[in-house]
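Incident review: delayed structure delivery

Summary: a single-chain prediction request sat in the queue longer than the usual turnaround. Root cause was a stuck worker, restarted by the on-call engineer. No data loss occurred. The affected request and its eventual output are reproduced below so the record is complete for anyone auditing the incident later.

Affected input:
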Amino acid sequence: MGGVTFSSWEESVLCVKCGSENEAEAKVCARCGALLPRYLEEEEAAPAPQQEPIHERLQIFEEAVAKLQEGTWSLEEFSNFLTETAAVLAEKERGIKEIEIPEEAAADFQEELRVGFAGIELYNRGIESMFAYLEAQDPQLLEEGLDSIRQGNERINEAMRINRANRDKLE
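Output delivered after worker restart:
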């Protein structure tokens, strides 16, 4: 890894609520509508909000499995969901791997990257288990998949907490 940058901080701002990347001049997150960090600082009269962990993608998986189990979705619909979601997550993973971090900051980001990639691997393992369900139709594979995705979600949330701490050190 030559130098690792989180997009270019001058060009974008990460939302502390949902983790989405926003344009530098944005005041609110385009995805969830939360005030972005520098605007939160301007509102010092109110106590700083506690960072909520990201659970949206996990909830999407839980809802998809529930739809399949209830019979609301066919195996084909579930397969399409898995295929589309896996493609989105693979693109996000590629983007993360292409991030360049300045050499002088690389040591600070090693733990964040290790934890984040462990979370991504658990997500991928969960999706693989769910694809295996499509072949075997063993309900245990769905539960194993959800469990792996839950663990991956926790790791990704931890990586985001580490990222915030690292950014605070850089400021």
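Verification: The first strand starts at residue 12 and ends at 14.
Action items: add queue-age alerting; document worker restart procedure.
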